[in-house]
């Protein structure tokens, strides 16, 4: 297996026009902790994660601001930047000391669709704790899924330039490949690419301590008044549980747990037919996947492509 320069998903940055409302949802209901910020930006951490923050919210037109990945060392950051630039990838910034909370060393660049990505190392970790039994708060960020009108090309870009590997594919007899599950470590997926009408966020997923905590968290969010889009159930690809909700900016967010950890050298990707009911939900407990449910995660058109966020 080729050595990867990316080690893990670090955080997701979103721009939202209703910052106060969205921040309050994630801190008062979703279970994240505000660790830094001001009137126009908020940095939110998970109590169980050493990452300085796992979600960044900025007041602006709705978009994906950036997706941040970790690297093991400054040497790997420099090597990633040099390799990407040599391949013609457009850099936003060159490797440098970071001025965001936690500091570190990193750089930003555009992926093939125009999303802003970041690779960083040496970010200060935060004091975190073990999540208690039955405590319904996220342990960490699990994965980010994006929509792409050309998912085949997007998949190839992440494989070629960032060393992601394909874990599994969702497939339809009438529409072809519907979703690619991509990994940068032994977790089944930290990133995925869905076929959509435009580039946008499909969903962001947050890992819970276990099934008991995931189910209690699902009930907690239902009682908060947030709309459940799909769930609760258990996927086939990744073997993880799911419960999808809409946040106050109409981004789809998920509580999950029990994501499969792969023996990478022995793993062979499968094509899973979305027409098979157990592909979507092994348990049969969720509402049936339909065109109306799928449309919820198409999200609004992302107007931030090839426009780097100011922070």
UniProtKB/TrEMBL annotation:
Gene3D superfamilies named among the record's database cross-references: 2,3-Dihydroxybiphenyl 1,2-Dioxygenase, domain 1
A Pfam family per the record: Glyoxalase
Positions of the VOC domain: 8-122, 140-258
Signal peptide: none
InterPro entries given in the database record: Glyas_Bleomycin-R_OHBP_Dase (IPR029068), Glyas_Fos-R_dOase_dom (IPR004360), GlyoxalaseI/FosfomycinResist (IPR050383), VOC_core (IPR037523)
Lineage: superkingdom: Bacteria
Protein known as: Oxidoreductase
